[in-house]
Amino acid sequence: MKRLLLIGIGAGDPDHLTLQAVKAIAAADVFFIVDKGEVKQDLIQLRLDMIAEHGRAPYRIAEARDPERDRDAAAYTAAVDDWRSRRGHAIEALVRDELADGETGAFLVWGDPGVYDSTLAIVEEILQRGNVTFDYQVVPGISSVAALTAAHRLSLTQVGRPVHLTTGRRLAESGPTADDVVVMLDAHCSFAGLTEYAIHWGAYVGTADEILVSGPVAEVGERIKQVRAEARARKGWIMDTYLLRRLSPRPEQA
């Protein structure tokens, strides 16, 4: 039977690779790469560097082009589902055509495969279609959330206070729903106006381009907007994460 490894490779620092991830890379016969285009070529190069350092020859690299996604669609969930399905068909073709029975294929997944990533869901969708049969294993990695809190020297959790993991879109729609809120990929800086919170923000966390800003939203919010816009214009893309932490806990949690 074919075997897949979904390997978490951390948030950008090559040293984020765990020993388990290193062993998994060495066990792969084929590495699958979904190309997001020239703008994000450095993300692909990091994967290629890891493969070159830890892969065990002879191995093969098989690539597919990532389908375009309509980021301005009014029906956001439907647009994401459509993109994920088309991406799934591209990945299914790779597994079907490039991986022989008895071989092991690997996807090097940014961060942790179980945190804000579509690879797990796509693999399950492929299995449910039944056109390709394989077994798979998930190798956890250091997520951008863990890298962010480490960079800011923070604990993610506080005694008696829940943590909510959400997206910038949902934060804009519903506002913060806990005293501590982790927000992923907020293109519109939805933290603006949340002056009862401090923000611990990071972009390209774990890479040579890492940017960190921390402080009360009222004091650093505009600075983050400016820094984010400049960084995105310079690189052509941005991946950022932040932790909102209420400056004073609500009375029922004091």
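Next protein, fold it too.
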Amino acid sequence: MAREAGVSVPTVYAVYGNKTGLIQALADAADIAATPSQSLAELEEAENDPVRQLAAMAGYDRRLFERAGDIIALVREAGRTEPALANVYRDGRQRGDETRIQVFSSWPGGVLRQGLDMRSAVDIYAAICNIDVYTTLTGERGWQPDRVECWWTEALARELLA
């Protein structure tokens, strides 16, 4: 990695401290690559429209997986043997869950499907919109990213909303 960047390994360690620091920087860059400011603007514009808010969140996930899916997979796999990297992956998932809770909590009562509690709604979102589903559909099934995003939006609306 240092060679491809045209720097020495000691320079990389001087900047990032260790492998965990480097991977944390990659994970942070992955989030930025998905343009969270665009998603925030879309969420605010769709303030009273849960379907459009789900579309904004699905769009963010699509951009994240399209631009940084390899990094997410790297962090997840490296976390199997490196506890600090497992924390990086878990923290990223937790931030996503917190965003979903914040958005879902802003909806008036009766918007979530009857009998669906907040935790289950977040779990359903995570089951539908994740790197594995994205990779399967785009890599193995030949779907274009925009088709995945549209399907996610439709599936989320069907599964989450009254």
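About the second fold: The CA atoms of residues 36 and 104 lie 18 Å apart.
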